[in-house]
Design goal:
- The protein has 12 helices and 12 strands.
- By secondary structure, the chain is of the alpha/beta class.
- It has one domain: 3-Layer(aba) Sandwich (Rossmann fold), CATH 3.40.50.720.
- A 7-stranded parallel β-sheet has the order 3-2-1-4-5-6-10, with helices on both faces.
- Helix 6 crosses helix 12 (about 325-350).
- The N and C termini lie far apart (about 45 Å).
- Residues about 140-150 have low confidence and may be disordered.
């Protein structure tokens, strides 16, 4: 059965892959992107475009009208920002604005699912145990029911607040929302070069100076993450959260797989965690002194140190989600970067 689906943020890494899979599935696909957005990831697709951002209420209403499913894929992931205000404006205030439009009677009349892109960082993780969707972090003005939330970066707080907001609209306003908590994504089509994609590119080009010991993240292939979003629309229970990750993998292993996939030597140098923290302290100090945004800072390092694993059996059981080994997606990402570099080289020679 053909459904009408809208992907908000379709130009992004996840949004473009969701869009591609929906088109391949034969759905009637609409996309909403900013007027100045780079849309190379979806330019070859037959979709209906709406130009506007998440603050354009009239464009939102026009794009959502008559939709069966809305996939909300807008996230500001810049966890290293010196001033975190943009994170909360986009991830929290912007989400609230879209939710307000989604529950308007004219929109709600046809809307069957609102699939929200969340993150696995919204669950409480502790060393020595496996976290599930029930391990929720509650952030109401920086407080939990039992203790003050210490150690959460502004980025994580913005993601927790956004997810809780979506669940509130499902509970109190009848929004048919499902939250999909996606881990670190790897794969091809990373046209905007995400920070984790940059690591693979560096390894694939033989230019990654070192890897960091003691750094490991939950990871999943970008195509599998996109499929989880679509399955959540089809089978997800309203008001529920679903964690999406294939496995935990180290920074060194990601670099090794990427390098070997394209026939180059993996980085030979590895720095210890204390050295990584010292470098992060310097990055944070530079940000304060010079007023710059440094990608390698204490906040970004804390995000990379998500050592406790998460349990994704709920998504597999309820959604029928079956991810491929993430190693395959890492190899595809490495080949994507090398292929893109080669294409640029040939284009330059031809020009």
């Amino acid at each position: 059965m053909t459904t009408t689906a809208l992907v908000i943020g379709a130009n992004g890494y996840l949004g473009s892959h969701v869009t591609r899979q929906l088109v391949a599935d034969g759905q009637d696909v609409r996309v909403m992107v900013r007027p100045n957005a780079t849309t190379i990831g979806i330019d070859d697709l037959l979709v209906t475009r709406f130009l506007g951002d998440i603050w354009d209420d009239e464009v939102l209403r026009e794009a959502m009208a008559g939709c069966d499913v809305v996939y909300y894929c807008v996230v500001d992931t810049r966890g290293w920002l010196r001033d975190p205000a943009p994170l909360f404006r986009t991830n929290v205030d912007g989400t609230r604005n879209v939710l307000e439009v989604a529950v308007e009677p004219a929109i709600a009349a046809s809307l069957k699912r609102f699939v929200f892109t969340s993150s696995y960082v919204t669950v409480g993780r502790k060393r020595g145990r496996v976290a599930t969707e029930d391990d929720q972090i509650v952030d109401r003005g920086g407080m939990s029911p039992t203790k003050r939330l210490r150690g959460l970066t502004p980025y994580v707080r913005s993601r927790v607040q956004a997810e809780n907001l979506v669940m509130e609209y499902a509970r109190d306003h009848g929004l048919p929302a499902v939250a999909v908590g996606i881990s670190t994504t790897y794969g091809s089509g990373d046209w905007g070069r995400t920070p984790h994609g940059a690591i693979i590119a560096g390894a694939a080009f033989g230019k990654l100076p070192f890897v960091m010991k003691g750094i490991q993240l939950e990871a999943v292939g970008i195509d599998d993450a996109a499929r989880a979003m679509i399955l959540a629309a089809e089978k997800g229970r309203v008001g529920e959260r679903y964690l999406i990750s294939e496995k935990m993998i180290t920074n060194a292993e990601v670099a090794r797989i990427a390098a070997e996939a394209v026939g180059v030597r993996p980085p030979a140098r590895a720095i210890s965690l204390p050295v990584a923290y010292a470098m992060a302290v310097l990055g944070s100090a530079k940000a304060r002194l010079k007023g710059t945004d440094e990608q390698f800072s204490l906040d970004s390092l804390r995000l990379m140190r998500a050592e406790a694993p998460v349990d994704c059996s709920k998504a597999k059981r309820e959604l029928g989600w079956e991810p491929r080994p993430v190693e395959e997606s890492i190899r595809e990402a490495a080949k994507f970067w090398v292929g893109l570099r080669e294409a640029k080289r040939r284009s330059k020679q031809a020009g």
